[in-house]
Amino acid sequence: MKRFFKPIEKDGSAKKPALSPAKKETENEEENKKREPLKFLTWNANSLLLRVKNNWPDFSNFVTTFDPDVIAIQEVRMPAAGSKGAPKNPGELKDDTGPSREEKRTLLRALSSPPFGDFQIWWSLVESKYAGTALLVKKYLQPKKVSFSLDKSASKHEPDGRVIFAEFETFRLLNTYSPNNGWKEEENAFQRRRKWDKRILEFVMQCSEKPLIWCGDLNVSHEEIDVSHPDFFSAAKLNGYIPPNKEDCGQPGFTLAERKRFGALLKEGRLLDAYRFLNKEKDMDYGFSWSGNPIGNYRDKRMRIDYFVVSEELKDRIAACEMRGRGIELEGFYGSDHYPVSFELSPQATPDSKQGSLSIIQWQIQCTGKVNRK
């Protein structure tokens, strides 16, 4: 019969007791609460359901590779919950008919599969398959508060589901699908856009407590450098119509009136266009986010109308902002007429921490291959 003896442990050699799974999970949760999103993606999907049906594997691979913390989507084009004639719930997908239930299942199945299962989703939708926005945030990086209108009311949604506003610990994030300017002096065209621009400016001026990251399809190209063919877009007209005010003439999104208002918004709101901050020169391959139909007059005509606009306080933390598609043949568009735009912040550093400063430099080198010394 063998005898077994417990070996005598040397002083200080005893192993520390392992943390229980519950305690580990609690510590991880506490650690995650201290974190903030650093990698962002915005994309006008031009119908999220169509992208799921036709382009999802490629887009999923892209998201897996980039691994964003936040995904802002515009033109979801899914109807809000609520039967015909009844009040709608803009925060939920419609499922009161056979076709709508099937569409909801198709969409949610895609959004629950990798890598999207790691995100929590908020919707702002309308009655029809028009406009609408969505915001996806990693589950361990949850915002403190989410609202859906420019007056920051938690229960109210903006008409056409154009706004999702999320407040995090150290900054605020605004996802918008800005209305198209249209071609005429009408209520749903020039007048609608003027009112929107005024409300956005008021909103920005009231959001000075924390830095702002504003992203989405802003439907404006600020400078000539932001379009592929400035003369073409300046002279564009619909059915020969010329607006009475010369500043309203041209392609919606590139009229002088819109561009002036956007410039004033950046200046008065102390905001920076993150992409243009890092890229001063025109890039005919990667410098635009929307492309016209490959067939017809708009072939090879492109505009940069999707943005990350950030408060000046974040200037030194801008690590990267990239257009994620290119060319006439819509490479990287994943079926939409827009391609995704990515944005990265360097980690927030303690002012007196040299180690923190070093991590920012390392982050910039990792993201862009160079140190941002602007």
UniProtKB/TrEMBL annotation:
Bound cofactor: record note: Probably binds two magnesium or manganese ions per subunit.
Enzyme superclass (EC): hydrolase
PROSITE patterns in alphabetical order: AP_NUCLEASE_F1_4
A single GO cellular-component term on record: nucleus
EC number: 3.1.-.-
Sequence ranges assigned to domain Endonuclease/exonuclease/phosphatase in this UniProt record: 41-338
UniProt xrefs under InterPro entries: AP_endonuc_1, Endo/exonu/phosph_ase_sf, Endo/exonuclease/phosphatase
Compositional bias ranges of the Basic and acidic residues kind: 1-14, 22-35, 91-104
Site feature location: Interaction with DNA substrate: H338
Entries under PANTHER family matching the protein: AP ENDONUCLEASE, DNA-(APURINIC OR APYRIMIDINIC SITE) ENDONUCLEASE
UniProt name for this protein: DNA-(apurinic or apyrimidinic site) endonuclease
Species this protein is from: Acer saccharum
